[in-house]
């Protein structure tokens, strides 16, 4: 693969995995990840959504690290661009401007009501998000803490729980549950996840 550029799409969960894989290329900020100015032709410092090319010496020295970082990203938001955008392709893909059409009054009213419905859905009622982590070395625990922090941005109240000692029967009363669980060794589950898994997979387990 010959890399031309790399950028960060929406949805970064600031887990630091890319910075660990390629610290000269990625810098994780409070709420996203930036491509460093020293590796970019345009010298910018942002997510590089304009897909500025990487410097030739960076491409030859760090392509493997960049691909490793993209592979390590748990939410697949590191976008590796292999070819520079050609002007012809851009012209071909450029959308044809549409003539704005008058929106019938009834449809406009309906849109407002739908918008209000979505806002209500996102802001009212039970806003809890229970995040259970199964972690052997601490990475899943750290990721869970970051997810709980990020949840605030979506109007949710995240609570992090160790899977060890978590009351399995309480799951049926939870509104939203997110399980973050790693594997280690040859695919074994973390020690702290084992008891909950045994309870969940037992024949006598309640149907949730
Ligand atoms: S690995 Fe992905 S999610 Fe994690 S900080 Fe980097 S871009 Fe964000």
From TrEMBL:
Q: Name one GO molecular function term.
A: FMN binding
Q: Where is the 4Fe-4S ferredoxin-type domain?
A: 4-31
SUPFAM superfamilies per record: 4Fe-4S ferredoxins, Flavoproteins
Question: Where does the record place the Flavodoxin-like domain?
Answer: 129-208
What is any Pfam family matched here?
Answer: Flavodoxin_1
Q: Note the InterPro entries from the entry.
A: 4Fe4S_Fe-S-bd, Flavdoxin-like, Flavodoxin/NO_synth, Flavoprotein-like_sf
- Give the protein's recorded name: Flavodoxin-like domain-containing protein
């Amino acid at each position: 693969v010959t890399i031309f550029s790399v950028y960060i799409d929406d949805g970064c969960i600031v887990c630091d995995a890319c910075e660990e894989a390629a610290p000269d290329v990625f810098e994780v900020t409070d709420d996203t990840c930036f491509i460093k100015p020293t590796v970019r032709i345009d010298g910018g410092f942002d997510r590089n959504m304009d897909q500025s090319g990487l410097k030739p010496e960076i491409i030859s020295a760090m392509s493997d690290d960049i691909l490793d970082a993209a592979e390590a990203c748990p939410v697949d938001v590191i976008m590796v661009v292999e070819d520079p955008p050609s002007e012809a392709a851009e012209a071909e893909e450029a959308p044809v401007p549409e003539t704005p059409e008058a929106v019938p009054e009834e449809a406009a009213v309906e849109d407002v009501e739908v918008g209000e419905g979505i806002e209500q859905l996102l802001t009212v009622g039970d806003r809890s998000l229970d995040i259970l982590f199964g972690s052997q070395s601490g990475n899943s625990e750290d990721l869970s803490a970051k997810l709980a922090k990020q949840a605030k941005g979506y109007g949710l109240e995240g609570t992090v729980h160790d899977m060890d000692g978590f009351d399995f029967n309480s799951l049926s009363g939870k509104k939203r549950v997110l399980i973050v669980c790693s594997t280690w060794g040859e695919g074994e589950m973390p020690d702290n996840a084992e008891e909950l898994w045994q309870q969940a997979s037992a024949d006598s387990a309640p149907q949730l």
